[in-house]
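Hey, resending since the last one bounced:
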Amino acid sequence: MDKESFFLDVYEVAKLIPKGRVTSYGAIAKYLGVARSARVVGWAMNGASTMDEVPAHRVVNRIGVLSGKHHFQTPTRMKELLEAEGVKVVKDQIVNFEKHFWDPMTELGLEKS
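The structure tokens again:
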């Protein structure tokens, strides 16, 4: 799979994340069958921060830190978008990350919960 089609696949998964929920780069990579490619998912999401149709603000690192915040228009934009959806963020980390976590493997029915 070439980089461009992989990035498009990443964007399609990101579009499925419901408002008020978040996922991680690694969870998207695992869902796409490339579990060790979380960093590449991060690169894809870096380019999506200006795409209105891709909710890049809903993709964070594995412990809920807003590691992609610098790719948005302002360093606080990612936090602002999440908080507008009811996700509390303190010191660039999602509060109650597990509560808000959306796992595409289970949510999309590929793995038994």
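The chain has a mean pLDDT of 93.

Sorry for the duplicate.
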